Amino acid sequence: xxxxxxxxxxxxxxxxxxxxxxxxxxxxxxxxxxxxxxxxxxxxxxxxxxxxxxxxxxxxxxxxxxxxxxxxxxxxxxxxxxxxxxxxxxxxxxxxxxxxxxxxxxxxxxxxxxxxxxxxxxxxxxxxxxxxxxxxxxxxxxxxxxxxxxxxxxxxxxxxxxxxxxxxxxxxxx
Length: 174
What we know:
This protein has 174 residues and is mostly beta strands. It contains two helices and 14 strands; from the N terminus they run ββββββααββββββββ.
């Protein structure tokens, strides 16, 4: 999704997106909310904004794609139901069932990129989850960075960089 004139919002709304996400708003904000990317060894996300980026849950699934039914699978609907391949399964990153044996992105050299001329803001408890390295670069602040990334190779380095500050807001008390 690209907007040369203003903002771009991407809301997953309970659906799974293709494995590659490219969002650019050179003259505006980018808002990402509840987006899950289908697993792929070549999957990636690039988010570019001339102003701010706001991330409220972006998950690159590392579920083994070989275990998911495809369009040529016999009895596709019943196989999909048996595999329980809804957004909840593909967004699992908290235990080993959400990870591919052998690391899905072991041959992938491209990082996930999130760049903003001003601020990059993460919503608390709604992380950016990526099974590979990440580059987060803000011209001003990175606020509440909630990032779960895997540096697969010994040479991989994930970067969170801000022109001003990397800061955390005080927790909300109820």
